[in-house]
């Protein structure tokens, strides 16, 4: 029986890489995104993939999405969602600006986890995609670092709390710049291509039991 994977945030650079790598392995893939724009623009890339439009922006929308997914039969769920941020020094950032990023970003991951995790079966993998700026004070990215550091701790707590259900919770931190689909040239120093990220994430899903709670991908 084919490995069954649900990818939330499937049309982003990271999500697309995971979908592509999973299809190369002949896995059954359900791709989720918040609207049809990405799916409409990539019909060939998502050939053979079940597509579902939905959001995890809050608990209500996550519950509505979960009702349309076969979570109980899924071998794995990957949450590859993000909130954009315009680089701004911390000392030039208002609390409102910070809150406008921190709140929605963490709400995405908390809403998805509290809705999806209880519906997964024993042995399934629940994996969130995070960023290496949880440890790296990059210029203008202080608020992003705070969000990603909080996300890492969220997944560590989720992993502990999910042990009784035997669902494996993992986070993959990308400690590199992402060279996305459609960008010219090859990935430069300190960069990882979306295709490479997809392959490595699929490897983590296959042997999640042998992995640490937080798995770091580096260029």
Automatic annotation (TrEMBL):
Keywords: Oxidoreductase
Transmembrane helix in keyword set: no
Short name of any one Pfam family annotated for the protein: NAD_binding_10
Domain NAD(P)-binding: 9-86
Molecular function, one GO term: oxidoreductase activity
InterPro entries associated with the record: NAD(P)-bd_dom (IPR016040), NAD(P)-bd_dom_sf (IPR036291)
Presence of keyword Kinase: no
Coiled coil: none
Family that this chain belongs to: Belongs to the short-chain dehydrogenases/reductases (SDR) family.
Protein name per UniProt: Oxidoreductase
Originating organism: Frankia alni (strain DSM 45986 / CECT 9034 / ACN14a)
